[in-house]
Amino acid sequence: MHIVISDDYQNCVRRLDCFAKLRGHDVTIHCDTVTGTDALAERFGNAEAIVLIRDRTRIDAALLARLPRLRFIAQTGALGPHVDLAACARHGIRTSECSGTGSATSELTMLLILASLRRLTDECSRLKSGQWQGSLGRQLSGRTLGVFGFGRIGAQVAKLGAAFGAKVVVWGRDTTLAKAQLVGFEAARTKAEFFARCDLITLHLRASVNAEPLVSADDLACMKRDAILINTSRAAVIERGALERALRAGRPGFAAVDVYDHEPILGATDPLLQLPNCLCTPHLGFVERDNYEAYFGNAFDSIVAFANS
Description:
Elements: E1 2-5, E2 26-29, H1 37-44, E3 49-53, H2 61-64, E4 72-76, H3 85-90, E5 94-98, H4 104-117, H5 120-128, E6 144-148, H6 152-163, E7 167-171, H7 174-182, E8 186-187, H8 191-197, E9 200-203, H9 217-221, E10 228-231, H10 242-249, E11 254-257, E12 278-280, H11 289-307
Parallel strand pairs: 1-2, 1-3, 3-4, 4-5, 6-7, 6-9, 7-8, 9-10, 10-11, 11-12
Helix pairs in contact: 4-6
């Protein structure tokens, strides 16, 4: 089969151990992102199978109509609104979604929480510039950690935060709150109380197409001046532009973000990157070797099974 993999930003897929599973197949890998139906149709025009890296590429009905050879789409992670499943069915294109290790994003979230509290990147920069200690950081133990969303990742972060001695408070849908309470975590009484009370808030939510953002400018304005917001889920869960305005206004006082409205960001064009009170990482949440071996290994297994069926 001719297999096309796009958006391999680090040019790492060929170096994964699991890549050997595709031996005997014709594989084309692109390390950049293109957008628009024409560019994507040219890229995938001869593909019999496509491997999607999370939601970096949008596969819609207009594109599928121009891919007559396509028979299979292997999705690393969950199939979401970036893939038109109804159009896939109409064209007879089979799909699969492939899971990873499940802990990479929660580990990065904890890294961002601790680095933000201890002003780690600032202190490292001071030392490299010839200076010594310049700030007093804070510890996580004893502080109130708010977890918005209690799915798989949110639950992992709650447990990790509690292990560091944080008081964990959860907010989300009624089913979310009930699930959190069932395993011993406190549920906030209201959304306003949640945002006003927590010293740190970490977001673990799914963004839906055409849905209202789950975090508004008013929510952010409720936060403490020394509070920290962490977002490793999706940029769209926050009202567009609201976090930049909130950080400039000082509520919250600091943020750590791993996700952006438009990705990849080249040339440091996102306004959050220009703010001294925002720690920014380039969507590293799921980007980790063990996770990639699991994601792509499962994706390649599904392609090989389809090719042999």
